[in-house]
Every structure is written in C-alpha cells, then in structure tokens.
Amino acid sequence: MGIKNYTIVTLGSHSALQILKGAKDEGFKTAVVATPNRIPLYKSYPNFIDEILEVKSWNEFPKLESELVKRNCIVIPHGSFVAYLGMDENKEMKVPYFGNKAVLDWEENRKMQRTWMEESGVKVPHRFKRGDKIDRPVIVKSHGASGGKGYFTARNQKEFDEKLKKYNEEKFMVQEYVIGVPLYFSFFYSPLTKKVEIMSIDKRYETNVDSLGRIPAKNQRGLNIEPSFEVVANIPLAVRESMLAEAVSMAERVVETSRKLIPEKGLFGPFCLETIITSSEEIYVIEISARIVAGTNFFINGSPYTYLLYDEPMSTGRRIAREIKNAINLNKLKEVLD
Ligand code: AMP
Ligand code: AMP
User: Fold this and answer.
1) How far, in Å, is the centroid of ligand 2 from the Cα of 212?
2) Which ligand is nearest to the CA of 160?
3) Which of 266, 230, 15, 245 is nearest to 116 (CA)?
4) How far is the CA of 272 from the centre of ligand 2 (A)?
5) Domain of residue 29, CATH code
6) Which of the four, 3, 4, 184, 315, has the lowest number of CB atoms within 10 Å?
C-alpha cells in the first residue's frame, strides 16, 4: 500500500499542529480528534488538516478506534495522551501507534527511569530515600506529574519536614535541587538508519520561578513567595558547540541501554533529555520524555540543527512522518509501530 492510503491521526492538543503539518508535507492524509472547544482552532488550518473527528470528551476516544483501524490510521502520541486517555487506554489502543508502548512504564515510573539513566552512564541528581537526612536543597516531585505541577522545594531538613506535612501527594520523589540552567535537548532515533539526530534545544518558561529574579531579594522579603514550575511556553536555544558532542553521546547511550532494558525494540522516534547544566559544565539529566515534547513546537519550520542535516524545513512532527514514509517504502512499517 502506498502512503496515500494511510491517515496520520493525533489528539487535538500539545503538538498536534506540528505533527499534522509534518504529515501533510510528507504526503499523508491527516485527521485530528478534538473536543468541541478546540474545533475552531483546527478548522482554521484546512491546508493541512483533512478531517476533524469530534468527541464530546476524551473518554469517547475508544469508540472511534474501530473506525480508525478500518481507515488505515496511524496514531502519533504526544504529551497529552497519557494525561487525557490514561495509561491503560494508551496501552490498549488498537489503532497502530508510532513508538514502543513498553517505554511508557519506564517513563512514568521515576524509579525505573532512574535505573535506565544510571545504566546509560548519565549523571542524575542525588535521590533521597525515606529517612535519609536532607543535607542540601531538594525538589519534591509527584509521580507522573505533568508540566511541573505539584512540586515543592526545600532548603534543608527543617523546611522539608514542615512542607511535607502539608503536601497532598501520596507518591513522590525527593531529588537534589541542582543549581544551574535548565536545557531541554530533543532528539530523534531512527530504527531504520540506526542513528540519533539532534532536533532542537529549548528551555521552558516556567511560572513563577522564571520571573522571581525580576524582583530584587530585598523586595521579596516578607512576601513569602514559593517558587513553582508550571510550564507556560518554550524558548529556543543554541548551545555551545562543545556541549553538543556530549549531549548526542548521552542520547546514544540512552537509546542503546533502552534496547537492553525495554522489550522488544527499546526507545525509538522522538525523545527529550531534560537537563540542568551546572557552573562546572556538568550535565545532569532530571528527566527523560520518551515522545515528542512541546518545546519542539517552536521549530515547525526546522531548527538550526535540522538545517544541518536536511535541505528543507524539518520539524520533529515531519521527521516522524518521514520515518513512517520510509518504513512503508522499505516494507518495514511494523518496525516503527506498536
Ligand atoms: P520510593 O520507595 O522512593 O518510591 O518511595 C515510596 C514513597 O515513600 C513515595 O511515593 C513517598 O510517598 C515516600 N517518600 C519517598 N522519598 C521520601 C523521602 N525522602 N522522605 C519522605 N518520604 C518519602
Ligand atoms: P520536570 O517535571 O522534572 O521536567 O521539572 C520541571 C522543572 O522543575 C524543570 O524545568 C526545572 O526548572 C525544575 N527542576 C526539576 N528537577 C530539578 C532539579 N533536580 N534541580 C533543579 N531544578 C529542577
């Protein structure tokens, strides 16, 4: 079957515009599943969205599935999938899905994720287990949190104990707070070429932590402001070239390790290493996102890094569609779907 027989479909949220624009540029039919409040947004792009499939709420999605299967749809997951559909619905989805669903557990469970990072030989912030003495600043993160919601920081044991009493989350992790700059490296691993490509680099614009510095410390005194880390937008970055080599090498090790740990195919497609770089230029990985991240949305027209490799605008969304197209042409579609 040629690529014209396939429809690329995703949920209307997160990076859907980028994904569908990329799919159309590669020659696919496209569709978006959307709730009523988002219909006007997706209707305004008839140039690359062929069809809008309306659902009243996300829990209606399973009802659409048999129709999507019949129409040779391929689903591209993004950051809203687990949040909107739930983990079980994601795993049980019958529509062909770009990526390896087995990675979902390794991404969601912070302990498994940590094992994966440690075995990849990347630096991770120190983790404090229950009962450990808090001997430096820490950040407390709830499990499966999205967009930095529900975190708190503490400077020492006393502050940690006080704040923990008021904390409502049941499952969380206590991590060393690394002082440095956050940098999000987005990559794409192709199981067809067996290469890691660097797609783009960004940082998040987080409220309120990114604007605390606008008020001098002396004016903050007494205001009792707590930093929070909710992401609002993303800002593009170009890093020192000397750091690129290390970032790519880390990404390669993460992919290689995933092939040993995660059945059957390990991690492939888009992923992001979320890092903090310290003043001694150490790169700490605070988290991995095993899918397209919203920071790539800035680069719908390509990034400086994809420009080095492609003579045309290559977004992460388009790179996904390109991989599917190449797989179809090589008769290897099964290798990129789950
Ligand atoms: P863990 O075995 O590290 O996954 O921790 C299990 C649960 O213990 C977590 O979900 C928290 O509810 C709690 N917990 C984890 N780390 C700490 C810590 N440093 N101090 C107090 N409670 C913790
Ligand atoms: P995450 O949900 O892990 O991507 O974290 C959201 C945000 O919290 C990051 O962008 C950072 O601003 C901050 N953050 C998370 N972990 C750490 C850490 N270990 N040290 C310093 N800042 C952190």
Assistant:
1) 16
2) 1
3) 266
4) 14
5) 3.40.50.20
6) 4
* CATH number, domain with residue 333: 3.30.470.20
- Count up the domains in the chain and report the number: 3
SS (H, E, C) 42-91: HHCCCCCCCEEEECCCHHHHHHHHHHHHHCCEEECCCCCHHHHHCHHHHH
Mind listing the pLDDT tens digit for each residue in 43-58?
999 999 999 999 999 9
Same domain for 304 and 199: yes
Q: Are residues 40 and 187 in the same domain?
A: no
Q: What is the mean pLDDT of residues 63-76?
A: 97
pLDDT number for residue 142: 84
Residue 229 lies in a domain: no
Task: Tell me the per-residue pLDDT of 121-161, one tens digit each, with 9 for 90 and over.
Answer: 999 999 999 999 999 999 998 876 566 678 899 999 999 99
Domain limits for position 259: 99-124+179-203+234-338
How many C-beta atoms surround the C-beta of residue 42 within 10 A? 20
Q: What is the pLDDT of residues 190-219, one digit of tens each?
A: 999 999 999 999 999 999 999 999 999 999
What is the C-alpha to C-alpha distance for residues 97 and 35, in angstroms, rounded to an integer?
21
Tell me, yes or no, whether 227 lies in a domain. no
- What's the pLDDT score for residue 171? 85
Q: Say which residue, 108 or 325, is predicted with more confidence.
A: 325
Query: With bands split at pLDDT 50, 70 and 90, how would you rate the model's confidence at 246?
Result: very high
The number of the ligand nearest the C-alpha atom of 134 reads: 1
Q: How far apart are CA 45 and CA 17, in angstroms?
A: 9
Which amino acid, 215? Answer: I
Last residue of a domain, one of 97, 114, 141: 97
Q: Is there a domain that residue 55 lies in?
A: yes
* Ligand 2 atom 1: residue of nearest CA: 148
128 lines ligand 1 (CB under 6 A): yes
Structure tokens at 112: 């498994």
